[in-house]
Amino acid sequence: MSEVGNIYDNGPISLIARIKDTISVYTAKKWAHYQVAYAEPWPRSSPLRIDMVALAGATIIAANGVIAKRLVPILQASDGEMIHFRFEPLDDVEGVVYEQAGTGKFNSRNTHARVNMATCLRDPYLATTTIFAMGYQRDINLEVQNPNPVPLFQARFQFFGFRYVLDEISPDLSSVVNQQGQPDKKKQDDIIRQLAAGDKATVAQFIGPTTWLPAEGR
Amino acid sequence: MSYLITQGRYTGLIAKSNNTAGNLVLGLLPGPGLVITLGAASVDIIHQVPIGRSFYITKLLWYSAVASTLLFETLSNAAVAVPMFPLQNAIAGIPGGLGEDDLANVEFMLNSVAAPNGWDGNLYVTSSVAGVVISCEVAEKL
């Protein structure tokens, strides 16, 4: 197993950055740059398992029915935290992911892919279910579909992965001065805009080597 | 467990037990549990194929207090039961069954062609006497 993987590596889930490495995360419609202050695994275990039928306050998911998308509390992060996880249903249901309640995850122009019990059969490490969720109020919502012609009494989902604590990086712009040696505010503002836009050269110059990753549906 | 399922990682199959027990003729609502047959006039449902899937039977178990015959079927789109395996005997008081090595490898799947040529792909049973208890295990292909 690699110590640090690419963000959607198809092997076992592994850290996408070491502690003190820099990551650039697309969140809240812009790129933000952070240093990893701390990282820890989130082992596959019962606290990371949720029954969506119970969460919805229901007793069943109806035959061929739906549990409307809802917040998954165990996946909520605090400000300055990022979670990196994969998941699978333990019962014969399909998970439909929204990152921010209104933005579908794993979708394209005409379709919205789901994760089902067979996902792990052909993708044993569940790499295709990899999701990053960042900070407060940028939470995962999960909808559940029952493909069976009979009601089911549980719709359990298991999550696992890593949790990162991040420090926002303030770029050192002290070298950006005008000909009189004074801070060049216009150019500094422009650099800050370029960093937020994710301009690769600007990021390389003022942030340094980084790992790019999306934390929301895009 | 079935080799079909233990090799499911390669074949894309998951294990299921019979998901419904009810009677089409009498209009009983299907629900989970053991199937208890209602007799010669009845086509009793054992397993409904979920939309977009198909399945193989990997095991059938039955028990009857009195001698009976069993016909395992699917239903044509003209609502005619179509046997999928030869007639089986349920011997009085002795549990019986068939494993996947004994069963012909029939893949149950929906054929939506209009009647009389299509079929619904579900698994049904008709017994000669009422009260035969049946359990089945299937491997659903996703």
Keywords:
heterodimer, A: 218 residues, alpha+beta, seven-stranded mixed beta sheet, three-stranded antiparallel beta sheet, 4 helices, 32% strand, elongated, B: 142 residues, mainly beta, six-stranded antiparallel beta sheet, globular
Please give the structural blueprint:
The complex is a heterodimer of chains A (218) and B (142).
Chain A: E1 22-27, E2 30-42, E3 49-51, H1 52-55, E4 66-71, E5 81-89, E6 94-99, H2 119-122, E7 131-134, E8 140-145, E9 156-168, H3 185-197, H4 200-206, E10 211-214
Parallel strand pairs in A: 1-10
Antiparallel strand pairs in A: 1-2, 2-9, 3-9, 4-8, 5-7, 5-9, 6-8
Chain B: H1 3-6, H2 8-11, E1 13-17, E2 22-23, E3 35-38, E4 44-47, E5 54-63, E6 68-75, E7 81-83, E8 88-90, E9 96-99, E10 107-109, E11 123-127, E12 130-141
Antiparallel strand pairs in B: 1-12, 2-4, 3-12, 4-11, 5-9, 5-10, 5-12, 6-7, 6-8, 6-11
Q: What percentage of residues of chain B falls in helices of 4 or more residues?
A: under 10%
The overall pLDDT average of chain B reads 85
**Mean of pLDDT of chain A:** 91
Regarding quaternary structure, what we see is: heterodimer
Strand content of chain B: 35-45%
**Coarse morphology of chain B:** globular
Greatest interface and its participating residue counts = A-B, 12 and 19 residues
Q: Uncertain spans of chain A, ≥5 residues at pLDDT below 50?
A: none
Q: Terminal Cα separation of chain A, in Å? A: 29 Å
Number of strands of chain B: 12
What amount of the residues of chain A lies in strands? 25-35%
Q: What gap, in angstroms, lies between the N and C termini of chain B? A: 18 Å
Number of helices of chain B: 2
The helix/strand class of chain B is: mainly beta
Query: Which shape of chain A, going by the Cα principal axes?
Result: elongated
Order of H and E elements of chain A: EEEHEEEHEEEHHE
The radius of gyration over CA of chain B amounts to: 14 Å
In total, the number of strands of chain A is: 10
Number of helices of chain A: 4
Largest sheet data of chain B: 6 strands, antiparallel
N-to-C order of helices and strands of chain B: HHEEEEEEEEEEEE
